[in-house]
Design brief:
This protein has 558 residues and is an alpha/beta fold. The chain folds into 3 domains: 301 residues, Rossmann fold; 117 residues, Domain 2, N(10)-formyltetrahydrofolate synthetase (2-Layer Sandwich), CATH 3.30.1510.10; 83 residues, Formyltetrahydrofolate synthetase, domain 3. 36% of the residues lie in helices and 19% in strands. Strands 1, 2, 3, 4, 5, 6, 14, 15, 16, 17, 18 and 19 form a 12-stranded mixed β-sheet that branches. Helix 4 crosses helix 18, helix 14 crosses helix 15 and helix 15 runs parallel beside helix 16. The longest helix is centred in the first third of the chain and has 21 residues.
Length: 558
């Protein structure tokens, strides 16, 4: 029997009108701003009316370090949300929006998979409600206004060699990483080096996902540092006078998007910051709104727990005053084998010893999550090639770590495949054992915060920060930025900065290559190793397989 593709399953969905989905959360039709029949934005006045309500319980879904074998974090997030509703809990899902770059590149979409998907899958993985286009436009408006200020006499005395604000595009395009702008003579301005990042790496994206409301959004946009003067003083977005117009462009994008799962359960899909250069979580406004409307809110953080979960705890929860009740850590037997040294081509063959060897990576993530004071359950995302012996090996290992592993078959069976996981999550969340705290205090120095993450989460022996970078951190502290959290930008594939070092390596240091101040978003970025903020397309991009069929339906999205 042939297995249906994700897009075929999504196309067969029996979607309910978005007003019915809103009713499940108590959102009246007057408070929904529909985009067609199956998606809508939630109005700001309605969100404002919820402030005095109690919060539901926040559940984070994270994962081991990603491997080419696939982990299925979003699929598990959706499956768990459906599973909680199936066992009688009022649950809502909160995830990020999909970026066009990965969609047409190698990673694919961000709507889940199999029978644990959010729909409409095609729209969500393409233009959706236009949020990313609004962010791209707002970001590039600022870029244009910076160059315009320089062109018209440079009243702010901007050093054209120190314009730090790049342009963005929501596409993978390596040719745009480094460019020379303003060529062509006097009429086009002053030639200078510039470049593009992908939209999800924009500080505007990070700000939209951390802002409480439009007033907070405008202030944070104004706080962004976009360039430096000839005497090295910062030039802010508000100096360019772009913050007001940018807020206007982002007015609708700030409102969370409501959609549904295949099982007609509510899901907020909003925002999508990079999990390397930014904090990799959906918007605070979507999460906090969902917590006022549901008893359980299931959300996810980008990449593995060393990046996404750490930033969720130390940045998002710290700044938004959130406190998770439980964490679900997603792993697969296939990924355990890959961490244990098995090549991707051989993952279909039973290898219990490799599973056991690869569990070291899982064990370190369990310890790390627990260090935040939050209970954790492991979700084994099932693949048909998994054998009983391999599954039992993972369960036995997790038991030695003081946690429980639950086999999940949501990809094939929807909520039926996650009821056991849902019951375990309820048990942990209702048990009251969560005692959440970030792993470093606000008042710790920036360099010590970097070292705390490197040693406590990555298990490095220490960090390598040269004198010039330490001086820069000290300068920012003197300017009043010392209480900001740190956002570590490093490879998602390893605890180290070497993507080839899988498992749970020891005996290494973390080199800090560069630091950047995201003053508007409210964190300091420490770049460790080589991080691309504008990805390139693979040799055979997914775009080659995406097309319209004879019926006008989209094929090839996944």
């Amino acid at each position: 029997m042939s297995v249906k593709s994700d897009i075929e399953i999504a196309r067969e969905a029996r979607k309910r009108p978005i007003q019915e989905i809103g009713e499940k959360l108590g959102i009246g039709s007057d408070d929904l701003l529909p985009y067609g029949h199956d998606k809508a934005k939630v109005s700001q006045p309605f969100i404002d009316s919820l402030k005095d309500r109690e919060n539901g319980k926040l559940i984070l879904v994270t994962a081991i370090n990603p491997t080419p074998a696939g982990e299925g974090k979003t699929t598990t997030t959706v499956g768990l949300g459906d599973g909680l509703n199936a066992i009688g809990k009022k649950a809502c899902i909160c995830i990020r929006e999909a970026s066009l770059g990965p969609n047409f590149g190698m990673k694919g979409g961000a709507a889940g998979g199999g029978y644990a998907q959010i729909v409409p899958m095609e729209e969500m993985n393409l233009h959706f409600t236009g949020d990313f286009h609004a962010i791209t436009s707002a970001h590039n408006l600022l870029a244009a206004m910076i160059d315009n200020s320089i062109y018209w006499g440079n009243p702010l005395d901007i050093d054209v060699r120190r314009v730090s604000w790049r342009r963005v595009l929501d596409m993978n395009d390596r040719a745009l990483r480094q460019v020379v702008a303003s060529l062509g003579g006097v009429a086009n301005g002053f030639p200078r080096e510039a470049g593009f990042d992908i939209t999800v790496a924009s500080e505007v994206m990070a700000i939209l996902c951390l802002a409480k409301d439009l007033k907070d959004l405008e202030k944070r946009l104004g706080d962004m540092i976009v360039a430096y003067t000839r005497d090295k003083k910062p030039v802010y977005c508000r100096d360019i006078k772009a913050d007001g117009a940018m807020t206007v462009l982002l007015k609708d994008a700030m409102q969370p998007n409501l959609v549904q799962t295949l099982e007609n359960n509510p899901a907020f899909v909003h925002g999508g910051p990079f999990a390397n250069i930014a904090h990799g979580c959906n918007s605070v406004i979507a999460t906090t709104t969902a917590l006022k409307l549901a008893d359980y809110v299931v959300t996810e953080a980008g990449f593995g727990a060393d990046l996404g979960a750490e930033k969720f705890m130390d940045i998002k929860c710290r700044k938004a005053g959130l406190s998770p009740s439980a964490v679900v850590l997603v792993a697969t037997v296939r990924a355990m084998k890959m961490n244990g040294g098995v090549a991707k081509a051989d993952l279909g063959t039973e290898n219990v010893e490799a599973v056991k060897a690869g569990c070291a990576n899982l064990g370190r993530h369990i310890e790390n999550v627990k260090s935040f004071g939050v209970p954790v359950v492991v979700a084994i995302n099932h693949f048909v090639s998994d054998t009983e012996a391999e599954i039992e090996a993972v369960k036995a290992f997790v038991a030695t770590q003081g946690s429980e592993a639950v086999l999940c078959k949501h990809w094939a069976n929807g909520s039926e495949g996650t009821k056991d996981l849902a019951a375990k999550v309820v048990e942990l969340a209702e048990g009251g054992s969560a005692n959440f705290a970030p792993i470093y205090p606000d008042e710790m120095s920036l360099a010590d915060k970097i070292e705390a993450i490197a040693t406590k989460i990555y298990r490095a022996d220490g960090v390598q920060i040269d004198g010039k970078i330490r001086a820069q951190l000290k300068e920012w502290e003197a300017q009043g930025y010392g209480n900001l959290p740190v956002c570590m930008a490093k490879t998602q594939y390893s605890f180290t900065t070497d993507p080839e070092k899988r498992g749970a390596p020891t005996g290494f240091t973390i080199p800090v290559r560069e630091v950047r101040l995201s003053a508007g978003a409210g964190f300091v970025v420490a770049i460790c190793g080589e991080i691309m903020t504008m990805p390139g397309l693979p040799r055979v991009p997914s775009a080659e397989s995406i097309r319209l069929n004879a019926n006008g339906q989209i094929e090839g999205l996944f």
